[in-house]
Amino acid sequence: MGMKKITTLTLAMLLLELLASLHAASAAQPARPNILFAVADDWSYGHAGAYGCVWVNTPSLDRVAREGILFTHAYTPTGKCAPSRAALLTGRNPWQLKAAANHWCYFPAEFKTFPEALGEQGYFTGMTGKGWGPGVAKDAAGKNRQMAGRPFDKRQATPPTAQIARNDYAANFTDFLDAAPKDQPWCFWYGGFEPHRGYEFGSGIAKGGKKLSDIDRVPACWPDNEAVRNDMLDYALEVEHFDRHLGRMLAELEKRGLLDNTLVVVTSDNGMPFPHDKGYAYNDSGHLPLAVMWKNRILNPGRRVDDYVSFIDFAPTFLQVAGIAWKETGMAPVTGRSLAEIFMSGKAGRVIPERDHVLIGKERNDVGRPHDWGYPIRGIVKGDLLYLHNFEPSRWPGGNPETGYLDTDGSPTKTEVLKSRLVPGQKHFWEVCFGMRPADQLFNLRHDPDCVSNLAGKEPFDMLKRQLFDELEKQDDPRLAGNGNLFDAYPCANTADRDFYGKFKRGEKVKAGWVNDSDFEAIPVD
Question: What is the mean pLDDT of residues 81-106?
């Protein structure tokens, strides 16, 4: 055999060995995971079977927790739909997002979202239901943005009540999977509209088979009566509707052999739509359910993790597991921290020692105050304590009484609380939900989980306040620099509601569709 033939054969063998090694390396490298992000609309912490709740049945979330991780201290930095979703989409706190700190804003084009970044880095992205909103989101060229992915909303089904959305979320997810290229990882945003109001009163009993006595505890900030308990059970029915669609999605993934390499995250955007919860900064405003499953990668499934985690941690988590460096995304600098280290630790309880607190806050959640002003708050949850600093205590925290306390959705519970103001021995319900606040509030969450007893003035809070303000200053919060008026000046993107208070005072006809006419106080309130 000639030297030339030997050399050619040797080279061919080497080439085959190289190709084989590259194939082996490729096989050893795990495929980028798919991502299913399931976010309910107004679902509070604890209201799931996995947390021991007996009046809300959530077998799908319970499965995710059982086969993954159940978090006990997950918080949104702000308890309202649009700014909460802005934080989770960008990895930044609301006070770092300019106008997006407000509800019903014009979302700044400079802040890219993680689904947009994933789409640019090889992921097929889609969503159904509610993404970011309400508000207006356009790019620098004035084109509407797909903040959470391409919409898949064609499929509809008859819901359990007339107040529940007709969106067949699970069927739309199936359409998305059918459209997803087989060789491409995907990210899907399941944005349920439930349990956002309105509710069909009495449906929890009539259609959910529940009883008033199922509720083991009514929060101390509301009267414990039949109307309130019915309202809570109607809310439970809507949570269960969200959970059923999640179960159908998990079954579809299992049928297609996709579940093991799909990171499943189940949570909510803010607390339940009741007085003192959604739209405020108390513990139930932002303390949320969170369960995560990733069968291929999460170690020691079935863990409960007590680390404090924030919504700003989701974006860096998704990008890290997708193998995408933040600097490659074109997103604004991140404030959150990836949860992947918790996934891979195998530990339960407290995992990362420095995850011992979260920051929270609020700007303008709804109109109804003079000049469309908000009610600015910053706070910190650490250990058993919640400290809140109210920057403008001369303003009504839930919105002005004469314009219907617009920060709180109309409901049977709100009606009962408003009635309590004139009932002897019950005014304290109105005071804790709608009354004026001092500049500082401190609550012991172990002894007062409903945040009805302010300890500021009785217990020291200087260290918490100093830590809060130091961290806000490092994050360039305009409130700390004395420029908080910027948030009040950003216009409401819903032009019909803009200058709501001024229109009302001028005698113009105004309509706030999220409250009841009876919420408007006809007589001045002290």
Answer: 98
pTM over 0.90: yes
CB within 8 Å of 393: residues ≥ 6 apart:
436, 437, 438, 439
Beta strand 150-151 pairing with 124-129? parallel
Only one residue has tokens 């979260």, namely 358
Classify 418 in phi/psi space as left (phi over 0), alpha (psi -120 to 50) or beta.
alpha
Q: Which of 43, 366, 415 is nearest to 201 (CA)?
A: 415
Distance of CA 518 to the CA centre of its chain: 29
- Tell whether the model's pLDDT for residue 28 goes beyond 60: no
Residue 21: pLDDT band (50, 70, 90) is: very low
* Three-state secondary structure call for residue 400: coil
What is the secondary structure of 357-397 as a DSSP string? Answer: EEEEEE---S--SGGG----EEEEEETTEEEEEES-TTS-T
Instruction: Read off the DSSP letter of residue 421.
Output: T
CA nearest neighbour of 392 among 409, 360, 369? 369
Alpha carbon distances (Å) from 161 to 202, 205, 386: 11, 12, 37
CATH domain 32-350 topology: Alkaline Phosphatase, subunit A (3.40.720)
**For range 80-97, the mean pLDDT:** 98
Whole-number pLDDT of residue 10? 45
Beta bridge partners of 40: 268
Place of tokens 């360039």: 476
pLDDT value, residue 30? 61
Pair 415, 434: CB distance under 8 Å? no
Cα 270–chain centre separation: 5
Q: pLDDT, tens digit, for every residue of 63-72? A: 999 999 999 9
**DSSP secondary structure letter of residue 492:** P
Q: Which two tokens mark 510?
A: 């105004």
Domain boundaries, the chain: 32-350, 360-519
